[in-house]
Amino acid sequence: MERIPMTAEGHAALQTELKALKSVERPSIIAAIAEARAHGDLSENAEYHAAKEKQSFIEGRISEIDDKLARADVIDVSKFSGTKIRFGATVTIVDVDTEEEQTYKIVGEDEASVKLGKISVTSPIARALIGKEEGDEAEVSAPSGARAYEIAKVEYK
User: Fold this and answer.
1) Crossing angle for the helix pair 46-70 and 8-20, nearest 10 degrees?
2) Which of 14, 82, 142, 144 has the most CB atoms lying inside 10 A of its own CB?
3) Would the keyword Secreted be found if you checked this record's keyword annotation (predicted)?
4) Ranges of H-type helices in the chain
5) What are phi and psi of 22, to 5 degrees?
């Protein structure tokens, strides 16, 4: 069974989502199905079919989260230090061509959100950065072509 790396923050977010699905969404959809059944003929009951479809989605998501939590490898980033990039690092990079600066935190796949400055450990940028240190350059293959980034800062928060 393959372990799934995630931060403690990501693990807590999955647990919160699972709790909400089990304690709020599941009972709500069961009530909606019961109400739709009371309307009569199920073969032409759009409310019933929509509720059953939503129930299927919720149960699938519950199973998916249960599996991820069972295989979670929670990594305590606060114990890391140094200038070498690894999972959990917050990295400031500078585009060599445009001198545009960006800061990313390398996290698990389920935690990734570019809007929040979090990139998946499996993303092309993260894969290019892992193992490098402050001052190094990283070459990233992007759809628009190869990009070079200088690593300006590495932090573990």
Assistant:
1) 150
2) 14
3) no
4) 8-20, 26-37, 46-70, 124-129
5) -75, -35
